[in-house]
Amino acid sequence: MSTQQDNIFQAIIAHAKEYGFVFPSSEIYDxxxxxxxxxxxxxxxKKNIRDYWxxxxxQLHENIVGIDAAIFMHPTTWKASGHVDNFSDPMxxxxxxKKRYRVDHLIEAYADTLEKDKADALIAExxxxxxxxxxxxxxDLIVINNIKxxxxxxxxxxxxxxxxxxxxxxxxxxxxxxxxDNIVYLRPETAQGIFVNFLNVQKTARMKIPxxxxxxxxxxxxxxxxxxxxxxxxxxxxxxxxFFVRPGTEGEWYKFWKEExxxxxxxxxxxxxxxxxxxxxxxxxxxxxxxxxxxxxPIGFKEVEGIHSRSDFDLSQHQLYSKKKQQYFDAxxxxxxxxxxxxxxxxxxxxSIGLDRMFLLILSNAYEEEVIPKEDGTNDSRTVLHLPxxxxxxxxxxxxxTKKDGLPELARTLMDECKNSFKCFYEEKDAIxxxxxxxxxxxTPFCVxxxxxxxxxxxxxxxxxxxxxxxxxxxxxIKALVLSEVM
Length: 487
Ligand code: GAP
Hints:
By secondary structure, the chain is α+β, with helices and mostly antiparallel strands. It has helices spanning 3-18, 40-59, 76-80, 83-86, 103-111, 116-132, 135-144, 191-195, 198-204, 250-266, 313-322, 355-366, 407-418, 432-442, 452-457, 478-486; strands at 22-24, 36-38, 64-66, 88-93, 100-102, 161-164, 168-170, 183-185, 211-220, 235-245, 275-279, 289-297, 300-311, 328-334, 339-344, 347-354, 367-373, 379-385, 396-400, 424-426, 446-450, 459-464, 470-474. It folds into 3 domains: 3-72 and 167-362, BirA Bifunctional Protein, domain 2, CATH 3.30.930.10; 88-164, Herpes Virus-1 (2-Layer Sandwich), CATH 3.30.40; 394-486, Rossmann fold (3-Layer(aba) Sandwich), CATH 3.40.50. The protein is built from 16 helices and 23 strands. Residues 189, 191, 221, 223, 232-233, 236, 238, 240, 303-306, 350, 352-354, 356-357 line the site of glycyl-adenosine-5'-phosphate.
């Protein structure tokens, strides 16, 4: 990452804290590494992103329904899913600083300092070795490139080992002779809550294949190198959807969801050039085909969402471990045989996006330190969040010009008319310019000023955040105007 990129990233982190979007967790105790809290505007923005995803999945797709499964699951779930044995990352320790690194992060961070061609070649070599799990050659790659620990500055590395990322805790208060009996895991992905409920949902909602089950919720991973603000956290939120399909059709559905999910991102008005696909070389233990949707964050192009063709791996594993059939009866006629397709374990296409990562995407895409030329030749400046109006924490700020002359009362009538339909903010304090700047900083798309003319002709001044243009319109047109932009 260049110094300039780093400065922008640091400015976004500072802005997020100063304006009540994101705080370090338990900050009065110096925080907890890679855990964050969302403040008044952050929690609104996060909720709006979640709602936008939820609506697009469960309301706009008639064949997708939602669930809300528990975070705790029977421990056998994680044995069946492969997470107990396979959910680990190759790690390497620096013998001098004792600092532990995820091997791919260590190499990627070094690649960021190289010219593009060299960086691409290094990443390609790393991915090929990761895919083969050739840890000896991977260590050689680190040593040959003289990749150093950022703390000790040395290249004195241990061998590479695997490290499981799941958090464990104990369940219930009953002591057992075998301490393992009480162990439960904090779920590392929401997906398994969907798989174990596959038949419950299919039967109760009377779903016919192809259909999807969507869920949002917390996930936990003991990330070793948890860094880069809310990009990689130990407690985070996922928005996942598992789409169950007839075996043999997974290729076309994988393609469909790969395109559909990128369309969702672009529907927020974000520049398409900031997105790219990255097809996986090293596949997760369950995956048949997989890609990431990557976004150009201030820290470079990084994954925001994964699309995975998971075959029938998860349902087959749950059938095996639970000894309960996870089959679906497909009554549709197979043209090849003229008979129903019959019983089978469906294949699955998964779309999985991190809510916090999407939040960071929206925030960093929206952030601008804008220079505004003035008529006298000097410059003014403002920090503005160009948030999509649909996602903005506050949609409309209602600002009486003064605290007297009946203006607050008029402003309150507009507030009462609008606040049931969308989030409004009311403020009388400070000069109007200062109040506009504060709304720019939290990304409010519309400000309305009520002044003395309002008393005479019921018109108000509406100010648009991005252009800063102002126009006079009848007060009774405001609600419809805002609604047309934010719904
Ligand atoms: N069920 C599949 C699954 O969990 P993943 O690629 O490990 O796949 C999906 O995670 C998404 O979850 C990622 O694309 C990312 O947006 C988000 N994510 C994963 N680990 C994260 C972390 N430590 N902090 C924040 N978001 C994370």
